[in-house]
Amino acid sequence: MSVKRVSECFVKPQHDHSQDAKQPIYLTPFDLPFLNLNYSQKGLLFAKPPPSENQHFSITTFLNDLKHSLSATLTHFYPLAARLATRKQQNPPSYVIYIDPENSPGVKFVHATVEVSVSDVLTSTYVPSVVHSFFDLNDVICHDGHTMPLLSVQVTELIDGIFIGGSVNHMLADGTSFWHFMSVWSEIFRSKDENGYIISRPPIFKRWVLEGYDHVTSLPFTHPDQFIDKTENGPKKQVVIKEKFLHFSSAAVSKLKAKANAECNTQKISSLQAVTALLWRCVTRARHQPGKSETVCKLITSNRGRVNPPMSNDYFGNPIGSVSATTTVEELMAHGLGWAALRIHEAVRNHDDAAVKSLLNLV
């Protein structure tokens, strides 16, 4: 089962940018740590309408509608159609990376086909290896956005379905921003009004910077070889890794949350923290590590609501951070679900405005 590429093209914003939209967007200390990491990849799987419901479905028409609505959407999300650019200086060493909205062919759009059914994808015990090929720009790192598109969309036609996969440069957008874009694209696609449609949530591109700091962040380098290591996140060695999705019913999650809170005599622990605590304990138990060894549970969190004043939920960028709960294997195993969940809750609670700004000061 191999994916066959049928065609590819580039899609630009439907309308010319305003003068403000042509200005460079400088990357922030939130964004720059992702220079050496791979693109973020997310996708949506749809079943094709059965012939009895829609005898006139045409993949050609569908793809054209996607391209036209994508072009209209990019008018609002123009940085996705941009490329990275760099301003360098030798003495003193300076390497300033920014998003250049003017010099780019646009967003890459790929049409592909594969002899796989929706059922093949959904009912497999593990994620089928072919799903990896439903995305473009595999093994590309974020710094490659100087020569690669910042967003590539691959539409893969299955036997009885459609998979729309997006690969986005993680320095440009986190998951919240990516799904913001996808939601607006969906709005415009369904409206069939590509010219006059007013989107519900216009994105905000003005960069958030620490008070008193320059909005231009300069790295103390003169060449990317000084900070880019492609052996770490480049083409992977032939190591077979099995992936699996775990599904928890709402009833099961509610029970876990109630159990975790009851064990700690609190109501603070969230559903996510309870489920994460369960996974942390299960994975640690399965690893059979020495009791005195350290075990860490790390969560990625959005910083939009953690800084003061808070950023808008429509801030388009990559303002994310990580929080960690740390203990020893024997201590984690000696206590119950609630104890582990409370450690996670405390790590999240302590990731406040002061913690975020303290970390940014170190970058």
Explain what you see.
- The structure is a single chain.
- This protein is α+β, with helices and mostly antiparallel strands and 363 residues long.
- It has 2 domains: 230 residues, 2-Layer Sandwich (Chloramphenicol Acetyltransferase); 113 residues, 2-Layer Sandwich (Chloramphenicol Acetyltransferase), CATH 3.30.559.
- Helix content is 29%, strand content 20%.
- The chain contains 9 helices and 10 strands.
- The strands form 3 sheets. A 5-stranded mixed sheet has the order 1-6-7-8-3, with helices on one face. It has a 3-stranded antiparallel sheet with strand order 2-5-4, with no helix packed on it. It has a two-stranded antiparallel ribbon with strand order 9-10.
- Strand 7 and strand 8 form a beta hairpin.
- Helix 6 packs across helix 8.
- Keywords: Transferase.
The CATH topology of the largest domain turns out to be Chloramphenicol Acetyltransferase
Shape: globular
**Oligomeric state of this protein:** single chain
Cα-based radius of gyration, to the nearest Å: 23 Å
CATH homology superfamily of the largest domain: Chloramphenicol acetyltransferase-like domain
CATH classification, class level of the largest domain: Alpha Beta
Structural class: alpha+beta
Integer count of domains: 2
Helicity level, as a percent range?
25-40%
- Mean pLDDT across the residues is 92
Strand order of the largest sheet: 1-6-7-8-3
The number of helical runs is: 9
* Poorly predicted regions: none
How many strands in all? 10
User: Which H/E pattern describes the elements?
Assistant: EEEHEEEHEEHHHHEEHHH
The appropriate CATH architecture of the largest domain is: 2-Layer Sandwich
